[in-house]
Amino acid sequence: MRINVVSDVHGRADALARAGEGADALICLGDLLLFVDYADHSQGIFPDLFGADRASEYVGLRTARRFDEARALSAALWAERGGDPREHIEIAVRAQYAEIFAAMPTPAYLTYGNVDLPRLWTEYARPGHQILDGQTVEIGGLTFGFVGGGLRTTYRTPYEIDDEEYARKVDALGHVDVLCSHIPPAVPELLYDTVARRFERGSEATLAAIRRIQPRFALFGHVHQPLARRTRIGRTECVNVGHFRGRGTPFTLEW
């Protein structure tokens, strides 16, 4: 069997359309949406609404961890624009999801990222797209478990949940051969982003499950430029499958 795995698509519909080539199936670990590209401030929902200059200002504040100022800037821009921000954002989100799901190969097994809006996925998923969160599926004789979303942070991204809820989803999987999640287990070298120069949040519940169950692989994304892309916990190979928006190529798992 050959499975291609992607995470952090962030609007790369062009590359996503080719991501299943040569594989029996595709796994997608979430973050389909692009709100703003931290490398190119002209790309994403925010600059489409307010322009690249304002996006650069917004990114600068968030990068400096001046979150209250970033929120104040966003509120002021929305006040100037008028209308309900939720309606404008949902229109933009729906346009991205329509393009991304149309490009998504089949068969594909998907779970949510922290910037996704789960309530909309079923409207755009096509036959052959299986959405899993706190659930398992058998692929080629191996049991794959999926846990979507992220944990609470100061960034307040759309699909962040409490630690307890996240842990319940991990526990619901039981024994799996491959543990698939959007965020990494709570291992420092897997969580540190060398470009953003900060630690992202990882899951203690996932780390505990890996130590207890010892799956063959733990696959995840979320950290775009990690200090370490791989590490081993007992017999489990932990792999950051890569920032798909930046790389445009999937990680391949074969057995």
TrEMBL record:
Highest taxon listed in the record's lineage: Bacteria
Any Pfam family the entry gives: Metallophos
Start and end residues of each Calcineurin-like phosphoesterase domain: 1-226
InterPro entries xrefs: Calcineurin-like_PHP, Metallo-depent_PP-like
A GO MF term: hydrolase activity
Protein name: Metallophosphoesterase
Species of provenance: Acrocarpospora pleiomorpha
Lineage: Bacteria, Bacillati, Actinomycetota, Actinomycetes, Streptosporangiales
